[in-house]
Design a protein that fits this description.
heterodimer; A: 328 residues; alpha/beta; Rossmann fold; 6-stranded parallel beta sheet; 10% strand; B: 224 residues; 2 domains; 9 helices
């Protein structure tokens, strides 16, 4: 294919996406047919590989693109199972009585938003609906802005809007503070020392929600959304181990395995890991959002990745047998 | 003196931070020391920004390979810096919050930076799939175990895992793919992660001791 042909396909796809009525959703029967066709195409690739025709990486990209894009238009009822770590996270939140003060630490930036923003949205909506007082902060510069987006989204819900929540009384955004784990350490003795003003430049002592909040002992629960350093590991090592904070976390799929030791030692109350964790967290909090939409493309793409690993191994076996035959 | 003074500073600050953790009355020493970290971090921001401008300006002026991308970098850096510093378009003016909705900085963050960053991250899906196809091979027993574990985790983290093994009776529920994935995370993964953590911690302790005692001097430069 010539280079301009790829551009033509791209432009055609954009035009189709723009002109088709939205939300575009195909029927369950059509969804099954599309899935079967995708499966047959993969089997065809497997047969080609066994017959000695190795495929290029563009074919892999095409299948991944299709498996990520097509499920957005499909209509499937998906079975679900809430994992123990998400359940304990939800249970810890559910145990908090109305008026509890929850510190929400947003330690991530836009690249991790597809996995973590749905968790932030679900958490914020749940907290507001259950009258939890939310104190937002970030150890990553863009974290508080991600929090702002989650707050704005939650406040658009009619049930939450009806509550007439007020900034400074029901929630506050203290913004970003540099210093990584040292910020957590200093918050152990004085919140106001680390955050003398909120993002609107209001003095810490003049913010009603922060009255009586001196350090971690005045916080009922910490919810950390993290995609790296500084993040959940630092919160556990300093806030939990040294100040006895109750901590729940939402992590990216890449980071989640590294915090499992803290779950088994109960340093971490609960964990929502990756897109799957976000989906389960949305289901547990009954706040369906983007993760519930994204999980179907994730299911398809994981299946395609597994299929290509099998195809790759089939190529290995075929190559091995051929070379053996050649030697004989 | 060129080497002794930095070593002395390092030993003094390091010892102070260790003491502040174990002696409650000395806790505020450690907290005061962390303030200096913040001050140094501010200089790092300036250094980082300055270095970015220098490197990319050189690339543009020499018309090195890919210089056009350096122009984009410089433009992006400049636009974000100016809109952020002068709070252009901010409804509350220069005294308003940086992330106030309506400000150009917030608009750029929400509609340019956020989607671009997410796109870059999303591209990983394609490269991971391609790399898995080419490199994830069951060449020996260890690789096969890894491959099987990867399959279980990949399926266990999706609805397909539930769908495929939901028929397994409750008595054998451990064989359901999502439960197998949980077991892999809670047993082999946990053991491996703990071993890594303990190893890293021991390494950090020994390296810290070497630094505090002045045995480790590589941070001073090649001629030390």
């Amino acid at each position: 294919m010539k280079k301009y042909q790829y551009w033509l396909i791209l432009v055609a796809l954009i035009i189709i996406l723009v002109i088709v009525p939205k939300p575009l959703e195909i029927s369950p029967t059509a969804s099954v047919i599309v899935t079967i066709l995708l499966g047959l195409a993969l089997i065809w690739v497997l047969v080609l590989t066994i017959r000695g025709h190795l495929i290029g990486r563009r074919v892999v990209f095409l299948f991944i693109g299709a498996s990520l894009a097509l499920p957005f238009f499909m209509n499937f009822e998906m079975p679900f199972k809430i994992s123990p770590e998400v359940k304990t996270l939800y249970d810890a939140l559910a145990k908090l009585p109305p008026g509890s003060k929850v510190l929400a630490a947003f330690d991530y930036d836009p690249p991790s938003a597809p996995e973590l923003q749905p968790q932030a949205d679900a958490f914020m909506a749940y907290a507001f609906k259950h009258d939890l007082k939310v104190i937002i902060m970030g150890l990553w510069p863009q974290g508080p802005q991600q929090a702002d987006m989650a707050v704005a989204k939650a406040l658009r819900q009619p049930e939450i809007r009806a509550k007439n929540l007020r900034y400074g009384v029901d929630y506050v955004n203290l913004g970003f503070q540099s210093g990584n784990e040292f910020v957590i350490q200093r918050m152990g003795t004085s919140f106001s020392g680390m955050f003398p003003r909120d993002i609107y430049n209001t003095d810490y002592n003049k913010i009603p929600i922060l009255n009586g909040v001196e350090n971690f002992s005045n916080i009922d629960f910490v919810f950390n959304l993290s995609s790296g350093y500084p993040g959940t590991v630092e919160w556990v090592q300093i806030a939990v181990d040294r100040y006895g904070v109750k901590l729940g976390a939402g992590n990216t799929a890449v980071q989640a395995p590294s915090v499992y030791p803290y779950l088994s030692s109960r340093r971490l109350t609960g964990l929502a890991g990756g897109m799957s964790g976000a989906w389960q967290f949305e289901l547990a909090t009954q706040e369906p959002g983007k993760a519930s939409t994204y999980v179907l493309p994730q299911t398809f793409s994981h299946t395609v990745v597994i299929a290509f690993i099998i195809i790759g191994n089939a190529a290995l076996i075929v190559g091995y047998r051929r070379s053996k035959r050649g030697e004989a | 003196m060129k080497h002794q003074i930095p070593m002395l500073i390092l030993s003094a600050v390091g010892t102070l931070l260790v003491v502040s953790v174990f002696v409650p009355s000395a806790q505020h020493w450690g907290e005061d020391a962390t303030l200096y970290f913040d001050i140094i971090a501010v200089f790092a921001f300036f250094l980082g920004g300055g270095n970015l401008i220098r490197v990319h300006t050189e690339k543009v002026s020499h018309k090195s390979a890919g210089w056009i991308y350096s122009v984009v970098t410089l433009l992006g850096f400049g636009i974000m810096l100016v809109t952020g510093l002068f709070k252009i378009g901010n409804p509350n003016g220069i005294a308003g919050d940086l992330s106030k909705s309506g400000s150009y900085f917030q608009l750029l963050f929400q509609y340019v930076m956020s989607p671009l960053n997410s796109t870059m991250y999303a591209l990983l899906a394609f490269y991971v799939a391609s790399a898995s196809y080419r490199a994830f091979r069951a060449k020996n027993t260890e690789a096969t175990i890894l491959l099987v574990a990867a399959f279980v985790i990949l399926l266990g983290r999706t609805a397909l895992g539930v769908l495929l093994t939901n028929w397994i009776p409750a008595q054998l529920s451990v064989l359901q793919i999502p439960n197998l994935a949980i077991w892999i995370m809670n047993a082999p993964n946990l053991a491996g992660q703990r071993a890594i953590m303990i190893g890293i911690s021991l390494g950090v302790i020994s390296m810290s001791l070497r630094l505090l005692l002045g045995i480790e001097r590589t941070y001073l430069g090649g001629d030390s």
